[in-house]
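Hi C.,

You asked whether I'd gotten around to modeling the 103-residue construct. I have! Everything is below, sequence then structure, no commentary in between.
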Amino acid sequence: MTMHMNSQTIGDEIARLSEAARSLIEATSEMAGAGVDEARQRLAAAFASSRAFREHLKEETSKCAVAADSAMHLHPYKAMALGLGFGALLGALMAARCRCRAK
């Protein structure tokens, strides 16, 4: 769920950035000059690239979520053991860091 929320947030931010870029392109459409035209073309290319990246991110996130869900259902005890192991390792690292700061 967290991975989906993070990818959704990233996707939303990319969408907002793309919308801002599109608005800027439209706002400067009447301005003349070689520099303005070049900047507008670069911005349009970045806009198209960000849209493609957002779609790719959605697809990959969905694939990863399905694979993780399948793995959890196929091997529940291994998944619990991995979660417990990572939790214990993270707890030990955090406890060691807190002890170092207390000294």
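If it helps when you're writing up: The longest helix spans residues 34-74.

Thanks,
B.
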